[in-house]
Design a protein that fits this description.
It is an enzyme of class 2 (transferase). Its EC number is 2.3.-.-. It holds the Pfam family Acetyltransf_1. InterPro entries: Acyl_CoA_acyltransferase, GNAT_dom, Mito_N-acetyltransferase. This protein has 168 residues and is an alpha+beta fold. The protein has a domain of 114 residues: Aminopeptidase (3-Layer(aba) Sandwich). It has a 7-stranded mixed beta sheet. The radius of gyration is 15 Å and the shape is globular.
Length: 168
């Protein structure tokens, strides 16, 4: 089943959304396969990581209100580098494999353009996360570098991480 923007409602995350967002983030963070956070990260620390005052957070819900996925956008660097954004995405376990990651990435690129960003950069795309790599490529991202052994995967040990970029 493929996803489309009409299959979900994407809106800015508000404080009341946090518990629903945490229910999506927690399993991904606990798995330790894609985010550079301790697997036992506290909810409070995860919230500080995910939500930044200089960024934008979004929640994608289905027509019944269930959270399908979430993302953040923020400047990748400060000062003269603040025109390039960084983004992170998590798709709810039950919603994976439907093209939602690509759809969220494309929508976030539109949001980034509206916020004045000129490019999007992913600093740490774990090479073993093949579904994410495929989704980001479908959304126009390109691998511009590989950092050997940059991520300690819980089952595979040290694996490469990609740096991906797209001009906006």
């Amino acid at each position: 089943m493929s996803a489309s923007m009409t299959d979900m409602d994407i809106c800015e995350q508000g404080e009341p959304d946090w518990l629903d967002v945490w229910r999506v983030l927690e399993p991904a963070f606990r798995a330790g396969e894609s985010y550079p956070l301790p697997r036992d990260v506290s909810e409070e620390d995860a919230k500080r990581y995910w939500i930044k005052t200089d960024g934008f957070n979004a929640v994608a819900r289905d027509h019944n209100g269930a959270v399908l996925g979430v993302y953040y956008l923020r400047p990748d660097q400060g000062g003269p580098g603040d025109h390039i954004c960084n983004a992170g995405y998590v798709i709810a376990e039950a919603a994976r494999g439907r093209g939602l990651a690509t759809a969220l990435c494309l929508q976030s690129q539109d949001q980034a353009r509206a916020m004045g960003f000129r490019g999007m950069k992913f600093n740490l795309v774990v090479s073993t996360n093949e579904a994410a790599v495929k989704a980001w490529k479908k959304a126009g991202m390109e691998i511009i570098g590989t950092v050997p052994g940059a991520f300690c995967h819980p089952a595979r040990g040290f694996v490469d991480a990609y740096i991906m970029f797209r001009a906006l």
